[in-house]
C-alpha cells in the first residue's frame, strides 16, 4: 500500500464511527489543555521571579569586592564568596584580569567619595542638595557594562561629569518654602492636604542639568549644615581642621559641567541613578584636594571600592563568578537567588505538570480502548487485506496512523484552547479587556506581570507528546491486528 492509501484508509475509519472518535479526541484535548495550562502557570511564576530580580539589578552583573573583605558590601549579599587572599586588591591589574575571562562583556571599576558632599547650582547658588553621592568610574566601560545615556554624551575632558536621571530632583530651591521647594520625580508620590498619596507622573525640574554648571562642596572634615539654605555660604564647613596626619584640610568647592544623563537601571539609590559620576582621574584629583595632598600620593595606593563585571549571557555568570572567586575575591550576584527561585519554580511545574499528566493518562486509555474496539470490529477487513497480499507492516502502520491522528487532532485543538485560556487568565490578571491588554498578555514585557506564559516550544512539545501518546496507546491494538491469522479473520462475521 502506498502511504497516501494508508492515510485515506485512516481518514475513512476515523469518520466511520464519528461519535467514538470525537469522544476520544475530546479526552486528548482535555489532557493537552491540562498539561499546557499547568506548565504555563509555572512559566508565569518563573517570569515574575525574573522580573523581580531584574528590578533589583541586572541578572548578568557580578559585583566584585576586595579579597580581604575590608571593602564595602562584604558578607551580606547572596552568592558571597569567602576571602582567600589578603593580597587580592581591586586595582588596575584586577580589572585587566577580569577582562581576560571568557564570557565577560564589560568591567566597570567604581570608587565612591567617602566624604560628605553637598552641591549647588543656578545663579547665586539658588538650588542646593545635601549628601550627594559622587562616584568615579571608567566611563569608557559604561556602555559595555549595560549602562546607556538618556541624553548628552560621555565626558571628554577634565571637569565634565555625568548625572543620574533622578539627580536633578534632589535639588531644593532655597527661595521657596514648604513642599514647593522640591520637584517630584516620575514614579514618586505626592500627597494632598487630606494625606492621600498617589503616584506622580513627574514634575518639571527647576533647571536643566545639561545646561547648568554645578559646584560640589566637600572636604575630609566637611559637615553639611543643618539648614539646607546655608549650603555654600560657609556657615558649616569644618575648614582648617587637622586631617589626622599633620596636614591641614579645608572645605573645597569644585565646579563641574554635566554633559550626560545616565539612564536609570532600576537602582535609583546609587550615584548612577541619583548622584554624580566622574572620570577616575577627576575622582583622584577631588580626593587629593579634599585631603590636601597630591594626586601622585592618592594614586600610589589607589584601589577601587568595587568592580562590576558584566557577563555576555546569564548562562556565563556561574563560570565567570567561579573564576573570579578562585582569584581570591568576594563576589555578589543574583545567580544563587535565581537558582533557588528556579528550583522552586521547577518543583511547582512538576506538581502542576503531574496533574495534567493524569488527564493525559486518561486520554491514552481512551485511545487504547478506541483502537481495541476498532480492531475487533474490523477483524474481517484485516483478513481480507492480508489475503489480498497487504504487508503486515502496512496493517500496523494503518492502525498506528489512526491512533496518531487522534493524538494530533486533539493536540492541535488542545493547544488552541490553551492559548485562549492563557489569554483569558492574563486579561483577568491585567484587570481589563482591551487591545492594549491583549497585546501585553501575548507579548509580555518588563512592565507586564503575566500569570500564564506559553512559549512556542511548549505548544510544539504538547503536539508531539499528544501524537506520541496516541501512537503508544495504539501500538498494542495494532500488534493484535497483525497477529490475527488471515483465514480466521475472513471467517469472522465482523
Describe the structure using short key phrases:
single chain, 494 residues, alpha+beta, 2 domains, 13-stranded mixed β-sheet, two-stranded antiparallel ribbon, 17 strands, elongated
How would you characterize the overall build of this protein?
There is one protein chain. By secondary structure, this protein is of the alpha+beta class. The protein has 2 domains: 3-54 and 339-491, no CATH class; 104-311, no CATH class. It contains 13 helices and 17 strands. The strands form 3 sheets. Strands 1, 2, 3, 4, 5, 6, 7, 8, 11, 14, 15, 16 and 17 form a 13-stranded mixed sheet that branches. It has a two-stranded antiparallel ribbon with strand order 9-10. Strands 12-13 form a two-stranded antiparallel ribbon. Strand 12 and strand 13 (248-249) form a beta hairpin. Helix 2 runs antiparallel to helix 8 (335-377), helix 2 crosses helix 10 (392-430) and helix 2 (18-56) runs antiparallel to helix 12. The longest helix has 43 residues, at 335-377. The model is unreliable at 69-85 and 235-248 (pLDDT under 50).
Quick summary:
The chain is α+β, with helices and mostly antiparallel strands. It is built from 13 helices and 17 strands.
Topology:
Elements: H1 3-16, H2 18-56, E1 61-65, H3 92-99, E2 104-112, E3 118-121, E4 127-129, E5 134-137, E6 149-152, E7 160-164, E8 172-173, E9 189-191, E10 197-199, E11 214-218, E12 241-242, E13 248-249, E14 252-262, H4 271-274, E15 276-279, H5 280-290, H6 295-300, E16 306-311, H7 317-326, E17 330-332, H8 335-377, H9 379-387, H10 392-430, H11 435-443, H12 456-483, H13 486-491
Parallel strand pairs: 5-15, 7-14
Antiparallel strand pairs: 1-16, 1-17, 2-5, 2-16, 3-4, 3-11, 4-8, 6-14, 7-15, 9-10, 11-14, 12-13
Helix pairs in contact: 1-10, 2-8, 2-10, 2-12, 8-10, 8-12, 10-11, 10-12
Amino acid at each position: 500500500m502506498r502511504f497516501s492509501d494508508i492515510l485515506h484508509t485512516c481518514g475513512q475509519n476515523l469518520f466511520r464511527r464519528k461519535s467514538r472518535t470525537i469522544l476520544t479526541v475530546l479526552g486528548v484535548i482535555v489532557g493537552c489543555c491540562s498539561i499546557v495550562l499547568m506548565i504555563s502557570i509555572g512559566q508565569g511564576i518563573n517570569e515574575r521571579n525574573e522580573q523581580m530580580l531584574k528590578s533589583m539589578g541586572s541578572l548578568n552583573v557580578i559585583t566584585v569586592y576586595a579579597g580581604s573583605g575590608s571593602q564595602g558590601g562584604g558578607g551580606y549579599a547572596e552568592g558571597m564568596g569567602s576571602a582567600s587572599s589578603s593580597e587580592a586588591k581591586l586595582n588596575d591589574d584586577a580589572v585587566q584580569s577580569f577582562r581576560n575571562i571568557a564570557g565577560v562583556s564589560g568591567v566597570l571599576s567604581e570608587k565612591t567619595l567617602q566624604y560628605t558632599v553637598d552641591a549647588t547650582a543656578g545663579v547665586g547658588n539658588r538650588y542646593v542638595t545635601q549628601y550627594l553621592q559622587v562616584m568615579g568610574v571608567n566611563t569608557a566601560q559604561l556602555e559595555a557594562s549595560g549602562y546607556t545615556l538618556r541624553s548628552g554624551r560621555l565626558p571628554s575632558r577634565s571637569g565634565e561629569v555625568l548625572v543620574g536621571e533622578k539627580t536633578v530632583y534632589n535639588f531644593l530651591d532655597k527661595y521657596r518654602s514648604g513642599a514647593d521647594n522640591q520637584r517630584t520625580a516620575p514614579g514618586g508620590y505626592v500627597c494632598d492636604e487630606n494625606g492621600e498619596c498617589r503616584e506622580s507622573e513627574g514634575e518639571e525640574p527647576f533647571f536643566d542639568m545639561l545646561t547648568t554648571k554645578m559646584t560640589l562642596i566637600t572636604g575630609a572634615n566637611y559637615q553639611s549644615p543643618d539648614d539646607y539654605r546655608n549650603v555654600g555660604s560657609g556657615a558649616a564647613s569644618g575648614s582648617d581642621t587637622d586631617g589626622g596626619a599633620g596636614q591641614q584640610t579645608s572645605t573645597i568647592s569644585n565646579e563641574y559641567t554635566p554633559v550626560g544623563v545616565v539612564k536609570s537601571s532600576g537602582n535609583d539609590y546609587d550615584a548612577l541613578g541619583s548622584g554624580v559620576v566622574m572620570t577616575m582621574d577627576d575622582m583622584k584629583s577631588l580626593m587629593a584636594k579634599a585631603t590636601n595632598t597630591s594626586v601622585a600620593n592618592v594614586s600610589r595606593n589607589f584601589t577601587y571600592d568595587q568592580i562590576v563585571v558584566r557577563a555576555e549571557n546569564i548562562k556565563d555568570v556561574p563560570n565567570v563568578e567561579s573564576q573570579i572567586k578562585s582569584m581570591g575575591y568576594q563576589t555578589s550576584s543574583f545567580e544563587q537567588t535565581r537558582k533557588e527561585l528556579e528550583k522552586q519554580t521547577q518543583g511547582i511545574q512538576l506538581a502542576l505538570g503531574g496533574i495534567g499528566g493524569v488527564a493525559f493518562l486518561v486520554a491514552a486509555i481512551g485511545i487504547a480502548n478506541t483502537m481495541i474496539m476498532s480492531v475487533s470490529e474490523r477483524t474481517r477487513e484485516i483478513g481480507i487485506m492480508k489475503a489480498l497480499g497487504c504487508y503486515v507492516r502496512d496493517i500496523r502502520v494503518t492502525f498506528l496512523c489512526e491512533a496518531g491522528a487522534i493524538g494530533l487532532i486533539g493536540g492541535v485543538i488542545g493547544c488552541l484552547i490553551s492559548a485562549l485560556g492563557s489569554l483569558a487568565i492574563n486579561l483577568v490578571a491585567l484587570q481589563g479587556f482591551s487591545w492594549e491588554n491583549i497585546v501585553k498578555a501575548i507579548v509580555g514585557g518588563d512592565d507586564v506581570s503575566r500569570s500564564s506564559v506559553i512559549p512556542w516550544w511548549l505548544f510544539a512539545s504538547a503536539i508531539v507528546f499528544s501524537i506520541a501518546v496516541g501512537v503508544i496507546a495504539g501500538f498494542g491494538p495494532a500488534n493484535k491486528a497483525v497477529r490475527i491469522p488471515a483465514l480466521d479473520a475472513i471467517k469472522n462475521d465482523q
